[in-house]
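TICKET #2291
ISSUE: user wants both folds in one file
ATTACHMENT 1:
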Amino acid sequence: VKSEFTAEAHTFPKIQAILKQKTFTYQFAQHQANLFLELASKIQDGQKFLIISHGGVVDIPLVFLFPNVDPGSWGPLFNYCEGFRIQIEDEKIVDFKLLRTN
């Protein structure tokens, strides 16, 4: 299966446009989001978990999780040691915070 996510899709807004097509990349992002929720369901209140990624794997589900937010203000895609923290309430992802090295 070929993904629509190519080397040219190096911005959050371009990822958002690709996800709106609801093809393979959308399915991938949906799967990743479900994994985040599954992991969160296995920890106790107050605990945290860390997902370490490389090469855009966390950029795509972040855009998926917040489709009504304009990702144009988020800056460039994540670099090494960067990512995001999600807030989950009542088994739903409700907010996020970008974690940048600068």
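ATTACHMENT 2:
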Amino acid sequence: FGAALELGIAGPVAIAVEPMYVQKGQEISGPFILNTNQGQMQVQGTLTNKASYLQVPVLVKAKIPLGVVKPYGFLGPNIGINLSATQEFEGGGQSLDMDNENVSSIDFGVDFGAGVAFSVMPVMDLTFDIRYSLGFTNVIDKPQQNESAKTRGLQFMLGAMFGL
């Protein structure tokens, strides 16, 4: 969820700033090595990483005004500020939840996609868009060897825009 501010700059071109709360994550299944009081043991299980971000894309939008229906495309950078990160492990009859302190505080990337706005009132449009968010930053804070993880995600957005 989030908000959007859109400013027209030249004809059908606008700049949009869209701060939003976004959750990202991954799930890994396989054998894991657990450290226990009795030493190390290999366990089949699932590790789930979750992270919450305040993400702020700044997008250049190009609109095709066709009356009531207005398709558009957009592209622009986004910066994500990590709000929290957790790990959950389930396997071998055990379940562990912990904070993940090895997630970087900033995630930088680019968003691109397309959408459509429907005029429902003179000062209100209903909008729907689909976007792909491509991360450039290694979100592992202290990588070991060649360890790397970059965020990627398909997002569906539904909202209302009010003209001022």
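RESOLUTION: both attachments delivered.
EXTRA DETAIL ON ATTACHMENT 2: The beta strands are 5-10, 13-17, 20-36, 39-63, 69-91, 94-99, 106-121, 124-135, 152-162.
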